[in-house]
Design goal:
Structural class: alpha+beta
Oligomer: single chain
Strand content: 5-15%
Helix content: 40-55%
Distance between the termini: 45 Å
C-alpha cells in the first residue's frame, strides 16, 4: 500500500495534532457529565458528615438495565435488489453478512449490546468497521469508547459530514510495530524514529488526555496503575481521518512525539472513501454530535431520590438516638445514663423533685411524604422514558393478552424514537460491509462461509455496494408483532373449520403457514412440502459438500447412500446456476448420473424392506414393473431435469451420459 510523500504526511500530522486538541477541549465538559451518570450507575460514594447516611440507591442502574433488556437484540441486515438480475448477488451477500455477524465469528450481537450500553450514558453509539485480507479475509466491527473518540466540533450529527475525526488510545507493542513495518503496512523509517524518540514505560500514561480517561476508571473503583502494565513496551497512537485540499486522508501517529507510521489517501485504505467510523444518537440533533443521552434525564431524579431517602434515614436515626439534656446535680455521672444491661444510675434527688425533671429529650418530628414523593418521581420517570413496572417485568401478568401486547407496543414505539437514528446507523454499517466484501472477499472464501451458492461471486461482487438495504428486528418490535402472529393463527383455524373456505384455500399455502407457526426452519419446510422422495438432512448435506468439492476441482467419491433426492439436488444446482462454466456443468451432471445404479439398488433394497415389514408373501417384481421407478430411469416416474425424458436444464446428449465424463470421480 502506497504511503503519501513524507513532506505532506508531516504537514498533515501537525494539523491532526491540533485537531485532536480542539476536539478534546470541545467535548471535555460533556465527558464530565457522562462520567457523573456512570458514577451513579456503578454506585457512587456519597460524602456526608460523620453520623449521617450516604446510601446510593440503584435508580440509575435499574433504568439502564431495564432499557438494555428491551433493546438487547441486534437488527438483521438484508440486501435487496432493484434489478432482478441482482437477485443472486443479494442472496450471496446477505448470507455472508449473516455468517460474519454470527455469535461464533463476528459476535455482532455482543458488540451491539456493548455500544448500546455506552450510548445509554453518552447518547452516542460509536463503532468502527473494516475488512482485511492479509493473510485471509476477515470482517472486523469494533466498539469505540466515547472517551476515545474525537470529531469536528461543528461537524453536526452525521459523521460523514465531518472534516476530521478519529480515535485515541490505539495501542501497539514494539514487536507489532516492527512486524507491520516489515509487511509494508507501516513506514519503516517512521517506525524506527518513533521507537528512538518514545520514552519508557511512562509513555502510556504521562499525558493529560490519557489521564482524563483514567478519571472515569478511578470512579468505577479500578486501579488505573495496574491498567498500564502489559509486560512489554507499548505505544499509544491516534487513528485519524481528515480532509485536506479536497481529499480525504488516513493517518496513524503518536500524539506526543508527532511521529506518524501510516499516511495514505483514504481511498487507498478504504476503496469506498467513507470514514470507517459510524455512529447513532439516542436523541438526534442535526448540529450537535455530542447530543443528550437517556441517563441525562434520569440523573437529577436519581440524585433527588438519594437525597430524600438518606434524609429519611437520618430522621429515623435522630428519633431512635436523639440528643438529651440532663441535670448535672441530679446525675453527677452522665456516663451512667448510657444504656447497659442491668445498669444502675446514681441519682441525687432533692425532696419533692421528680426524677423525670432531671432529663429532657429533644423531640424529632417524622418527615412526612418521603415514600410518596419517591414513588411519584419513580412513576413520573417511567411515564416519560417508557420504563414502567410492566416493562421491568414486575407487573401482574394475569391480564388480557390484548392489554399485555398493547403495553409492549408502547415500549416499542417509545424506543422507536431512538431507533430512527439506530436504523440509519445499521444501514451505514451494511454499506461498509458490502464495500469490505467487494475489496477483500474471494469466491473460495465465500464458499467456505455459505457453501456452493457462492459460485459466481468474483464477477458479480462489483455491484455489492449498490444493492438496497433493509434493516429489520429489535426485541420490542418482535414481541409486539406476536399479536399479529396470534391473529394469523386464529385465521388459519377459522379457514380449517369452514367447509367452504377449506375448498377454496390453497392447501400448500396452508401447510406452509402452519409449519411457520410451528417454528420450523425454511429448509425443513421445503422438505415437508416436497412431493418427491426425500433423503435425510445428512444426505442432502453430503450432496451440498460434493457440489462444493467438484467446483473446487477436488476428487469426489460416489455416495453409496445416494437416493433420487441426492441426484436431484446436484442436477438442480447445475441447471439453476448459469454462471457455471460448461466444464463444471458437465462435471456435476455426469457425477449425478454416475449414481443411477446406486440409486436403483438403494430403492430396490428399501422396497424389499418395506414388503418384508408388511409380511407380503408375493415375490418382489423388478422395480421397472412396479410403477415405482427411479426418476430418469426406464419406466421411472418424474424425470430428473437434464436426463432422458427431462425437459429442463441445458441441452446435453445423454445417449451415453457417462462416456467421456470429466467429473473427478474415484
Amino acid at each position: 500500500m502506497k504511503h503519501i510523500e513524507t513532506t505532506l504526511a508531516d504537514i498533515l500530522t501537525q494539523l491532526a495534532i491540533g485537531q485532536v486538541k480542539v476536539g478534546y477541549e470541545y467535548k471535555r465538559n460533556r465527558m464530565k457529565q457522562i462520567q457523573k451518570s456512570e458514577e451513579f450507575y456503578y454506585g457512587r460514594k456519597i460524602k456526608v458528615p460523620t453520623g449521617r447516611f450516604g446510601v446510593p440507591l440503584p435508580t440509575m442502574s435499574g433504568f439502564v438495565d431495564t432499557l438494555m433488556s428491551k433493546i438487547d437484540d441486534p437488527p438483521n441486515i438484508k440486501f435487496g435488489y432493484t434489478d432482478l438480475a441482482d437477485l443472486k448477488l443479494s442472496t450471496k451477500i446477505t448470507s455472508a453478512i449473516s455468517k460474519d455477524s454470527s455469535s461464533t465469528i463476528g459476535r455482532w450481537g455482543m458488540k451491539d449490546r456493548w455500544q448500546k450500553k455506552l450510548a445509554c450514558f453518552s447518547g452516542r453509539g460509536i463503532t468502527k468497521y473494516y475488512a482485511e485480507s492479509d493473510p485471509k479475509y476477515k470482517s472486523n466491527w469494533d466498539v469505540v469508547d466515547h472517551e476515545d473518540f474525537i470529531c469536528e466540533p461543528g461537524g453536526g450529527g452525521y459523521l460523514e459530514n465531518h472534516m476530521f475525526l478519529g480515535q485515541d488510545n490505539i495501542f501497539r507493542t514494539e514487536t507489532k510495530l516492527k512486524e507491520n513495518a516489515e509487511a509494508g503496512i507501516y513506514d519503516k523509517t517512521q517506525v524506527a524514529e518513533l521507537i528512538a524518540n518514545a520514552s519508557s514505560s511512562d509513555h502510556k500514561k504521562n499525558d493529560n488526555l490519557w489521564q482524563q480517561k483514567n478519571e472515569r476508571l478511578k470512579k468505577m473503583g479500578l486501579n488505573v496503575d495496574d491498567n498500564t502494565y502489559v509486560g512489554q513496551q507499548m505505544y499509544r497512537l491516534v487513528e485519524w481521518g481528515m480532509e485536506y485540499e479536497g481529499k480525504r486522508y488516513y493517518l496513524l501517529f503518536d500524539y506526543l512525539t508527532g511521529v506518524w507510521v501510516r499516511a495514505h489517501e483514504l481511498k487507498e485504505v478504504f476503496e469506498s472513501n467513507l470514514w470507517p467510523w459510524e455512529s447513532w444518537a439516542t436523541h438526534e440533533d442535526p448540529f450537535i454530535f455530542w447530543s443528550k443521552a437517556p441517563c441525562d434525564d434520569v440523573l437529577p431524579i436519581a440524585d433527588a431520590i438519594d437525597v430524600l431517602f438518606n434524609q429519611a434515614l437520618d430522621n429515623r436515626n435522630k428519633k431512635n438516638m436523639g440528643q438529651r439534656a440532663y441535670d448535672s446535680e441530679m446525675f453527677p455521672d452522665p456516663s451512667e445514663l448510657e444504656w447497659r444491661p442491668n445498669g444502675l444510675v446514681r441519682v441525687e434527688r432533692k425532696e419533692g423533685q421528680s426524677i423525670a425533671a432531671g432529663v429532657y429529650e429533644f423531640k424529632t418530628e417524622d418527615i412526612q411524604g418521603t415514600i410518596e414523593m419517591v414513588g411519584f418521581m419513580d412513576n413520573y420517570l417511567g411515564r416519560k422514558t417508557g420504563i414502567t413496572p410492566e416493562t421491568e417485568g414486575v407487573a401482574d401478568r394475569d391480564q388480557k393478552v390484548g392489554i399485555y401486547f398493547g403495553s409492549l407496543q408502547q415500549v416499542a414505539d417509545r424506543l422507536g424514537l431512538y431507533n430512527k437514528s439506530y436504523n440509519q446507523f445499521w444501514e451505514e454499517l451494511g454499506l461498509r460491509y458490502a464495500w469490505g466484501a467487494k475489496e477483500h472477499l474471494t469466491e473460495d472464501e465465500l464458499m467456505g462461509m455459505i457453501g456452493e451458492d457462492a459460485i459466481g461471486w468474483d464477477k458479480e461482487k462489483e455491484k455489492a455496494p449498490n444493492l438496497s438495504l433493509t434493516v429489520t428486528g429489535s426485541s420490542a418490535e418482535l414481541e409486539a408483532n406476536e399479536s399479529l402472529s396470534a391473529k394469523r393463527a386464529d385465521a388459519l383455524m377459522m379457514i380449517g373449520k369452514d367447509p367452504e373456505l377449506i375448498q377454496i384455500a390453497n392447501p400448500w399455502w396452508r401447510l406452509q403457514e402452519i409449519l411457520k407457526h410451528g417454528s420450523y426452519e425454511d429448509d425443513q419446510i421445503k422438505i415437508a412440502m416436497s412431493r418427491d422422495e426425500i433423503g435425510n438432512i445428512e444426505l442432502l448435506s453430503e450432496a451440498s459438500q460434493a457440489i462444493q468439492d467438484i467446483i473446487k476441482g477436488e476428487r469426489v467419491k460416489l455416495n453409496r447412500s445416494a437416493n433420487t433426492s441426492y441426484m436431484q439436488t446436484i442436477l438442480d444446482y447445475a441447471t439453476d446456476h448459469d454462471e457455471l462454466t460448461e466444464e463444471k456443468y458437465l462435471e456435476l451432471t455426469n457425477f449425478a448420473y454416475a449414481h443411477s445404479e446406486i440409486v436403483a439398488e438403494n430403492a430396490k433394497r428399501k422396497s424389499m424392506f418395506m414388503n418384508a415389514g408388511a409380511n407380503q408373501q408375493k415375490a418382489e417384481a423388478p422395480i421397472s414393473q412396479q410403477g415405482q421407478g427411479i426418476p430418469g430411469q426406464p419406466g421411472g416416474g418424474n424425470p430428473i431435469p437434464g436426463t432422458p425424458g427431462g425437459t429442463q436444464g441445458r441441452s446435453l446428449d445423454n445417449s451415453n451420459a457417462l462416456q467421456g465424463a470429466t467429473a473427478p470421480i474415484v
